[in-house]
Amino acid sequence: MRASGRLVARASGRLRRVAGQAVSASVATTDPATRPLPSKRTAGAPLTRRRFGTGPGLPVLAVAALMVLIVAMLGVEQVTGVSILPDRLSAGLRPPPKKFPVLPASHPTSLAIEKIDLRAPVHDVGIAADGTIAVPDAARAQEAGWYDQGPTPGQYGPAVIVGHVDTTSGPAVFHQLRELRSGDRIEVTRTDRSVAVFEVDSVERFDKGRLPVDEVYGDFSRPSLRLITCGGRWVGGETGYSDNVVVFASLVKARPD
Questions:
Q1: Which terminus of the chain faces fewer neighbouring Cβ atoms within 10 Å, N or C?
Q2: 157 assigned to some structural domain
């Protein structure tokens, strides 16, 4: 299984850069002990009385009424399950689909997917001589390889695990990966004796020359997992199969081993 060398090299750099930014980034917060700054007004400009007394103006009342309407419509959505509000209007108002934990760094040791009866050891892989993500040797085709330049499973960002689809002697570790569907569970056991449980979001197939780097490697919004193998038609030579099969999954919980 080979991805495009140039694309993976760019992805590797992005993983390192974004991981560094995630560590050094900070969020500005308000100090509750600090008094608010006085409002600014143009020097010499007199303060004018509101036309409608001291109550809120019409624009404020209109905004308040709109917010009450939105909250009411969100309540209807919650009860009926029917989406009423436009996505742009309700962006940031609906809760995220699922909460998730964030785990400390810990290398993966094994992988289990009940749906396809898969249980396999996981070992570290790096970058191959041609700049692509290395894959397990043919002699270890029943094992998966975790890309050790990226996050470990459960940290923020996409942990990448690769494996062969087959060998000259028969099916390999990820032979049935394409059979996974949204909602299927993937369990990754780690060296700290915790199990990171992921849920499949989607299974995609991409031409190896057009792998969408940002989509596969660039999402650091939550802990996620990418399982990658070969797919499509056999073209032979250095390419092997024409496509990459990529499983996109998100961390939903963690438990002790």
A1: C
A2: yes
> Structurally, how many domains does the chain consist of?
1
* Overall residue count recorded for the chain in this entry: 257
Q: Distance of CA 210 to CAs 31, 122, 203, 217, Å?
A: 48, 27, 16, 14
Task: Please tell me the distance from the alpha carbon of residue 162 to that of residue 229, in angstroms, as a whole number.
Answer: 6
Strands 170-171 and 185-190: unpaired
Q: Is residue 30's pLDDT more than 70?
A: no
Structural domain range at position 227: 5-15+101-256
Domain with 161 in it: what CATH number? 2.40.260.10
Q: How many CB atoms lie within 10 A of CB 64?
A: 11
Per-residue pLDDT of 112-159, as tens digits, reads 999 999 999 999 999 988 888 898 999 999 999 999 999 999 999 999
- Of 42 and 18, the structure prediction assigns the larger pLDDT to 42
**Which run of H or of E encompasses 244?**
strand 240-256
Q: Any bridge partners for residue 84, and if so which?
A: none
pLDDT at 96 over 80: no
Quote the Cα angle for 247-173-187, to 5°: 55
pTM over 0.85: no
First to last CA, the chain: 31
Task: Give the angle subtended at the CA of 93 by the CAs of 159 and 61, to the nearest 5°.
Answer: 160
Each as own residue / partner, the long-range contacts of residues 42-50 (CB below 8 Å, 24 or more positions apart, any chain) are none
